[in-house]
Design goal:
InterPro entries: BUG, Bug_dom1, TAT_signal. Keywords: Signal. Pfam families: TctC. The chain folds into two domains: about 160 residues, Bordetella uptake gene, domain 1 (D-Maltodextrin-Binding Protein, domain 2, 3-Layer(aba) Sandwich); about 120 residues, Periplasmic binding protein-like II (D-Maltodextrin-Binding Protein, domain 2, 3-Layer(aba) Sandwich). The protein is about 45% helix and about 20% strand. It has eleven helices and ten strands. Strands 1, 2, 3, 4, 5, 6, 7, 8, 9 and 10 form a ten-stranded mixed beta sheet that branches. Strand 1, helix 2 and strand 2 form a beta-alpha-beta unit. The N and C termini lie far apart (about 60 Å).
Amino acid sequence: MNASRRALLQGAAALAALPSMARFAHARGDWPNKPVRIVVPFTPGGTTDFVARLVAVELGKTLEQAVIVENKPGAGTVIGVDAVAKSAPDGYSFVCVANSFTANQTLVRKLPYDTQKDLRPVALMGMSEHVLATHPASGLKTLADLRNQAKARPGTLSFASFGNGTSAHLSGEMLKLQMGLDIVHVPYKGQGPALTDLLGGQVTMMFGNWPEFRGHIQSGKLVALGMATAQRSQYAPAIPTLAEQGVPIESNSWNGLLAPAGTPDAIVLRMNEEVNRALAGPAVTEAFRKGGIASLSGTPERFAAFIQSEIAKYGDVIRKANIQIEG
């Protein structure tokens, strides 16, 4: 091919690309022109709520629009997620999901939305390690104590969770399976109310996010039975892992933004860019450092791959535990 023909074809290709480039620039330039809503499908006070509000403040600065966080708990996060899945795909509704979003794919028999088709990944944000904690009045200090007490009084001990299908619920099910224990699951609408009842001694134990449990453990209001990490946590190096005590459970809470399917690529990429900017900024970096939260910034594609791996992981746990919930 001669040089003039090559130049002509390159020019034609460039002209053909102009409409899509113009649409991309138009979407970035016009959006947002009104407040943006982020739904958190949990009650206030948990890590997902904290991260969403922290990032929302920074997004409001860079997007130059109000970013409103709305708590919409219920049905193991299904209610809040469904509200956004059925919202207009115009870039003004997002949902901040956690592990339960991927677990519900297998756990809930009749989801009102399609996990794979009705929402699209925007940005993964943070991850918190889990600690298994109990009330001091339980008399438990180790997993050996738990095993002895649960075997002596089957069905009388309980574990709280953030809701059906949440990471705390499935971690409790893994604990039951691996230790062969009969422990009653008590679901709540978020970590906040579950933690309140754990502190009051209404439930025996709970897998919870280290950032919210740290102060209560350090003050003696709660007793740590172990960290649900592969190695000793950098945030709590003095606390033995569950694996060290013969029960290799790894559990955490992650959070990330999804948008309704059909939300324009340009808006998804812009939101991803701004979330990553917020995660790298001094305000979020310092809050994460103090809170013991790991930053998980990356692309929408990386988040999509992560979601698929989590669906597979929790699907295996749910099938082994033989648990399912009607939607």
